[in-house]
Specification:
With 306 residues, the chain is α+β, with helices and mostly antiparallel strands. The protein has three domains: 122 residues, Immunoglobulin-like (Sandwich); 82 residues, Immunoglobulin-like, CATH 2.60.40; 39 residues, no CATH class. Helices cover 26% and strands 41% of the residues. It has a six-stranded mixed β-sheet, with no helix packed on it. A four-stranded mixed β-sheet has the order 1-3-8-7, covered by helices on one side. A hairpin with a 4-residue loop joins strand 7 and strand 8. The N and C termini lie far apart (131 Å).
Length: 306
């Protein structure tokens, strides 16, 4: 129980580091640990029934024990061990912890009953990823991905959540850190860098670098190429005509135009109606005023007569 509590306390102190796990129950297993982090090596299912055992690293015994012997750990400040689940922990890993680890077990007669090894490689984890974009002369996009702190980093690229395809790549491949995208490619590009102990990624939104694709016939010559839109002088008249035709034939544009026209007509109609109402009201007021004046004049004449 004391050893379990001690292990839990030690694990609490290393939660800031990367924790990796490795199944070392097969001979020749390859294990990885993060520099400054923790690795758990499962050496057996249970050590409680083993008469005597020892673990050596670079011919130095780092762990020993047995059925009638409490485990002895050479580096208690950085290692811990649970015989009941056969797991050996190494904390605050350094590069010196890399190498071959050999487990040997013995019976009550001292006979070697098992002798197997595992390889531990300590790697620095990837801390961050940076992306640099560059527009090339014909509208292609060069993307450079680099990672900091990681040993033997590998790379993956995705566009809009999917792996890059040959139709989108001009050069490079989705496993290299530098790629060139074709002119038409746009969307959310993500570069992921990873090794056996960590991973990190960064994303950017890419566009066509201001280039447009010209596909027309000008003065009898067919032109198909990418050009910078602001400096484009090719097929300007044809492009304008094509756009004009598209405006007249595009149902959505036509629908918007009709709605706009309806709004204008409605607005004008409402204005005319209120203007007519105002004129009618003014005429009614003028008629009423004339009637009041006439009535007043008639009334005055009657009084004089009386």
């Amino acid at each position: 129980m004391t050893s379990v509590i001690g292990l839990l306390l030690m694990l609490i102190t290393v939660t800031d580091g990367v924790v990796t796990h490795c199944d070392g129950r097969q001979n020749g297993a390859q294990c990885y640990g993060a520099l400054g982090g923790t690795v758990s090596l499962q050496l057996m299912d249970d050590f409680s029934g083993i008469h005597r055992y020892q673990v050596k690293a670079k011919n130095v015994t780092v762990l020993s024990g047995g059925k009638k012997q409490q485990p002895v750990i050479m580096r208690k400040d950085r290692s811990s061990f649970l015989p009941s689940n056969g797991t050996f922990w190494i904390h605050n890993l350094s590069r010196n912890d890399s190498g071959e680890y050999r487990l040997q077990t013995f019976d009550s007669n001292g006979k070697l009953t098992e002798n197997r090894t595992l390889q531990l490689l300590v790697q620095a984890p990837v801390s961050s990823v940076s992306l640099v974009s560059e527009c090339l002369s014909q509208g292609e996009m060069k993307e450079s991905c680099s990672s900091e702190g990681g040993d033997s980093p590998q790379y993956r690229w995705t566009l809009n959540g999917k792996s890059l395809t040959e139709a989108e790549l001009l050069s490079g491949n989705k496993q290299t850190n530098i790629i060139t995208l074709k002119q038409h490619v746009s969307g959310r590009l993500v570069c992921s860098s990873w090794n056996h102990v960590s991973s990190a990624s960064n994303a950017t939104n890419i566009c066509t670098c201001g280039f447009i694709y010209i596909n027309c016939t000008f003065n009898g010559t067919k032109i198909s190429k990418w050009v910078f839109q602001e400096n484009n002088t090719l097929c300007v008249e044809s492009t304008t005509e094509a756009q004009s035709i598209m405006v007249h034939t595009d149902p959505s544009v036509l629908r918007c135009s009709l709605m706009f026209l309806f709004s204008v007509v409605s607005f004008v109609g409402i204005g005319v109606y209120f203007k007519w109402k105002k004129i009618k009201y003014e005429k009614a007021e003028q008629f009423a005023a004339r009637n009041r004046r006439k009535f007043s004049e008639d009334f005055s004449e009657n009084e004089q007569t009386l």
